[in-house]
């Protein structure tokens, strides 16, 4: 068994909406370069495999045939404007080869999930994945095909009966929630900035699952400005107790790092160190609850050089069971590449110097605190469905 299956080929960089678009593939290129230079991808037990593109049969397990046809048409004619399918918008402009590039990302996440479910690997990672906004019949929020949803569907089709999905992107994981909202076999948990101030405008605590699946959609809507201590307090107050009650067979996670204080598209204030701590805890929960079965993807993240490569290199290192000490210097070769290619000053260490200390929920609930109000709203909405006391 491999320690981790990493879905990667340089062709994944082809998922590219063009110059000026926030979702620049430089972020995944620099992630892989950094992980290689730190020795993570060449370590024992790390299996790097070029993915095959998801075929139409696989894509149709989540997406409508009409939408797939629309993506193919837009892929052949990048001047297409198809608002009915979310294509040709500012968020999701069409580009040549869009279908092929999007299907490759999807294929990578599904392959990682299948490797974990089959026992070929303990963990699976696709840092190019995490395109969680795509809906069955439309593109949305920089996302064409919803690779986390496709991976979860593949797991269900392979016999999984209890899948947990945890999404720590600053934006609500609306597409994955929508696909499985009525499916009692899938628990979706999303921690995100409140929809009052951020796209996509969904993810309120009262979105809890459809008929027969009550309590299986969980949303923690955090106030703008939430930093490491508050975010980790919220995370620990909701995620571990629900996962332990749910007893999943496999854990699928999305690790958008746009919750960072330097991210230009949102308003939370985490450091790299707070984000890394969430990766560590999710890894440990997979081992505690799922015999280690863990599938992780990237997601959002628009501080392309300063944050994303370091964040997802930590994710890869944790999945490889070779965590990188946060005080580790970034390698000279990587720094030189960033400086010469992008004329930017690269980060010098694998840390922001942030603290991961937080007040556990057991320390008491403050009804006047905006963060505690948000957490309590979520616990009140879903904890009773899982036999948990929302107050303690």
From TrEMBL:
Pathway: Ketone degradation; acetoin degradation. Residues 21-317 form the Histone deacetylase domain. CDD domains: HDAC_AcuC_like. The keyword Manganese does not apply. Gene3D superfamilies: Histone deacetylase domain. GO terms for molecular function: histone deacetylase activity. Keywords: Acetoin catabolism. GO terms for biological process: acetoin catabolic process; epigenetic regulation of gene expression. Belongs to the histone deacetylase family. This is Acetoin utilization protein AcuC. It comes from Jiangella ureilytica. The lineage of its organism: Bacteria, Bacillati, Actinomycetota, Actinomycetes, Jiangellales.
